[in-house]
Amino acid sequence: MNSQKRPLFGLFLILIGLVLLLSNLGVISGLPGYIFSWINIFLLLAIANLFSGNYRSVLLFAALWGFFILRQYTDIQLRDYWPLILVVIGLSMLMRKRLRSQVTSTTDDSFDEINIFGGSTKKYTSTSLKGGKITNIFGGSEIDLRDCQPEKVVVIEVLTLFGGCELIVPKEWNISVDTTAIFGGFDDKREASSHKDPAVVYIKGITIFGGGSLKSTK
Predict the structure, then answer these.
(1) Is 146 exposed, middle or buried (0-12, 13-18, 19+ CB in 10 A)?
(2) Which one, of 172, 162, 171, lies nearest residue 86 by Cα?
(3) pTM value?
(4) Does the pLDDT of residue 154 top 80, yes or no?
(5) Alpha carbons within 13 A on the beta-carbon side of 148
């Protein structure tokens, strides 16, 4: 989502949140439940990512929305099972370090890293890096790009849901971070450099209860 659309979408979420809150407190009554439901938050996120072109995020949020909608028409009570979320988070924290495989190196010009309840450590040495995608759901990844030569414009899409992402890149790289964070963030922790590479690397995506960082050293 670009910087012009983000404030509008943020105001829209605030408005919906306030309406739902007032409805729950009984200040507003008569709202149609099939529209003003917390489940539809996933649908809103899916629509937002559709306009941003993050189609994998669209599939994720649409799947979550469909799951909870279907559960409304069964006898299973989700409130009895929500503590499993805490169990899963705890297990992912305990297992993340153990599940990280040893560093593997490749010369691929693009990458598509997916980690679900696991982790990975990769090193790329491409002489013409075109971009990549990173998806971490209850998992984490460490990607070393210090030996890569980027093309003039590189786009790296990031999706973290209860996960983390660490990119190790040269401090001379000219990087623009434009991510949407919900209880998370993406920080640039590299050392300062007086020289900047003419190529531009864009970091785009969304982090939900997760985060990411840029580093110039391990």
Answers:
(1) middle
(2) 162
(3) 0.53
(4) yes
(5) 33
